[in-house]
């Protein structure tokens, strides 16, 4: 009987008396700080977003995370030498900082140029 208990403890299936259990919540896989200005002179809006698990101060963080998690590399910078439209759809600007699955994010996305499609793709975050 003693051999079985020692074997179980060695395999990690038994907890030593007085040992703390690891029931603390998991760190989110995505942790972002987002600042958005849609109009020139407008007071910037700011919120936080965490995904997996969802949280932060973003309105309906769970819905935003569901959409964001389906995107492939949503904060990538445009490739070098890309031809971009000389269009500014608005003066909208979103600055996103934080982490995305362990990668550092520090990106400003504008509603125009090479970011025009990205701005609309990330509309659930920036609007």
Describe this structure in words.
The protein has 127 residues and is α+β, with helices and mostly antiparallel strands. The chain has one domain (25-126): Subtilisin inhibitor-like (Subtilisin Inhibitor, 2-Layer Sandwich). Helices cover 22% and strands 30% of the residues. The chain has four helices and four strands; from the N terminus they run H-E-E-H-E-E-H-H. The protein starts with a helix and ends with a helix. Residues 1-21 have low confidence and may be disordered.
List the defining traits of the structure above.
127 residues; alpha+beta; Subtilisin Inhibitor; four-stranded antiparallel beta sheet
Examine the coordinates and then state which fold CATH places here, giving the name of the CATH topology.
Subtilisin Inhibitor
**How much is the average pLDDT?**
81
Low-confidence stretches: 1-21
How are the strands of the largest sheet arranged? 2-1-3-4
Oligomeric state of the chains? single chain
CATH class: Alpha Beta
DSSP, total strands:
4
The CATH architecture term is 2-Layer Sandwich
Give the % helix. 10-25%
Helix/sheet category: alpha+beta
Largest sheet: 4 strands, antiparallel
Order of helices and strands: HEEHEEHH
**Radius of gyration, in angstroms, nearest whole number:** 22 Å
| CATH level 4 superfamily | Subtilisin inhibitor-like
The fraction of residues in strands falls at 25-35%
Q: Distance between the terminal alpha carbons, to the nearest Å?
A: 64 Å
Q: Give the tally of structural domains.
A: 1
Total helical elements? 4
Taken from the alpha-carbon principal axes, the silhouette is globular
């Amino acid at each position: 009987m003693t051999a079985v208990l020692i074997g179980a403890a060695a395999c990690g299936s038994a907890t030593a008396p007085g040992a703390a259990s690891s029931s603390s919540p998991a760190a989110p896989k995505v942790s972002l700080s987002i600042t958005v200005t849609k109009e020139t002179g407008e007071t910037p809006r700011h919120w936080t977003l965490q995904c997996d698990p969802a949280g932060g101060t973003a309105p309906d963080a769970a819905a935003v995370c569901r959409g964001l998690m389906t995107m492939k590399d949503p904060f990538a910078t445009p490739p070098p030498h890309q031809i971009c439209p000389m269009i500014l759809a608005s003066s909208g600007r979103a600055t996103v900082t934080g982490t995305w699955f362990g990668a550092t994010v520090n990106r400003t996305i504008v509603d125009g140029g090479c970011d025009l499609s990205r701005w609309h793709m990330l509309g659930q975050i920036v609007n």
